[in-house]
Amino acid sequence: MSCLQQEWPEPIVRVQSLSESGVSVIPDRYVKPPSERPNPIISDQPLEVEEANIPLIDLQDLLIGEDIDHGSTIILNQISEACRDWGFFQVVNHGVTLELMHRALEVWRHFFHLPIEDKQVYANSPKTYEGYGSRLGVEKGAILDWSDYFFLHYLPNSIKDCNKWPALPNHMRETIEEYCGQLVKLCGILMKVFSINLGLGEDHLQKSFGGDDFGACMRVNFYPKCPQPDLTLGLSPHSDPGGMTILLPDDHVAGLQVRRGDSWITVKVAPGAFIVNIGDQIQVLSNANYRSVEHRVMVNSAKERVSLAFFYNPKSDLPLEPVKELVTPECPALYTAMTFNEYRLYIRMKGPRGKSQVESLKSPRRIVT
């Protein structure tokens, strides 16, 4: 992605610094248009839809070490229905210890409360996004989100550079390594489940991702307190451009919302749960049997929020298109082929823009509504 520019179009302002300055009015750069503000969407759907929550799935009886019990049809069906109907679900008894989950959140919370000069060492650029950032997209004058973040690469090893990970607080790098290693295992299990549920061989989707030569990265989101949370968002509506996302949410304050028809559902997190969502690349591979779903993040006037988003992605230069076994005369291929490198360039240029990127891939032979 050498066409990306080296510098941001305007001087970077850390949202945390704005929050901690005590401003009572947020700058215009963060004020969303009225139609995009975090007010409930008016719809004809009954009230109980607004009170819904994404599915909660217990993986305990599904896992035999790192293998899958194919006889666990109830759990397999629950995951299948969640992928087809919601694009989101929560998992518990997933194999990652609560101690590690808590430690990962707390070291990152500690990082964002370090002195600004310690964080600025890791300031990022649009070239790779790796490091300490405060905006997505390089359009000059764009309306920004109320958040800071830290983005890092984990796989492939050819682009992994632990020296770009924070050295502070103590044991940060060891915690990142341990945490990401566990998430890779969990994603590998879920990829097998997705393949089985689509009627493919257990390793089919993983092979489509490049086999062992896949990608993994993490973005740690920091949403500072906001004096006018009704005017802005921590992260604008988008679907994730990669394959699958495993989110470790902050258990102190809600913020994630998932689009459900014409409504936004505020996710209620179960204790010890990860939130899993389908990304655009699996939507493409599955020929829209599984769908990535728009989501956004609200901010809070009284509490800050930290979350860890782990992205499991295909090999960056491998063209992806619908799996031929899922293409039939009745359901022809919905999407044209594109590499993940080409695909994610869009969001790095434009920032989060709903589902406009995956929609642009629709084959001229087949338009779906």
Describe this structure as you would to a colleague.
Belongs to the iron/ascorbate-dependent oxidoreductase family. This protein is an alpha+beta fold and 369 residues long. It has ten helices and 14 strands. The strands form three sheets. The protein has an eight-stranded mixed sheet. A four-stranded antiparallel sheet has the order 8-13-10-11, with no helix packed on it. It has a single domain (29-360), classed as Jelly Rolls.
Draw up the topology in text.
Blueprint: H1 15-20, H2 47-50, E1 56-58, E2 63-64, E3 67-68, H3 73-85, E4 88-92, H4 98-112, H5 116-120, E5 131-133, E6 148-155, H6 172-197, H7 204-208, E7 215-223, E8 235-238, E9 244-248, E10 256-260, E11 263-266, E12 274-278, H8 280-285, E13 295-297, E14 305-313, H9 340-350, H10 356-360
Parallel strand pairs: 1-4
Antiparallel strand pairs: 2-3, 4-12, 5-6, 6-7, 7-14, 8-13, 9-12, 9-14, 10-11, 10-13
